[in-house]
Amino acid sequence: MKNFxxxxxxxxxxxxxxMEMSEKKTAELFKAFCxxxxxxxxxxxxxxxxxxxRLNEEISVxxxxxxxxxxxxxxxxxxxxxxEGKWMHYSISPEGAQKALEVLSELTRTRTxxxxxxx
Length: 119
Known about the structure:
The chain is an alpha+beta fold. The protein is built from 5 helices and 5 strands. The protein has a single domain (4-107), classed as Winged helix-like DNA-binding domain superfamily/Winged helix DNA-binding domain (Arc Repressor Mutant, subunit A), CATH 1.10.10. A hairpin with a 2-residue loop joins strand 4 and strand 5 (87-92). The longest helix has 14 residues, at 94-107.
């Protein structure tokens, strides 16, 4: 039986087969890692959940820019957010991080000639 993963955030949910993730979903996943501010955010979240206001102080970007970065990270499933009062609190999603590792491993795996029908 094939392995299926469900990645959930407040605004995004998708189910993918671990071996058949679409190129579009793969690009969305790795887009989260393609900005230096998002990398800084992930590094800040390594020590645990942070309030959006705290992240914004550390990164020194405007609130709309921070919201955009958090949306990209959450949509990719790498970060999860929860609302407490008027503030959002963010943390790294262990499931999303694991999925990114698995997809990267699958994309960079060397295949044998028997596995590659194109040659």
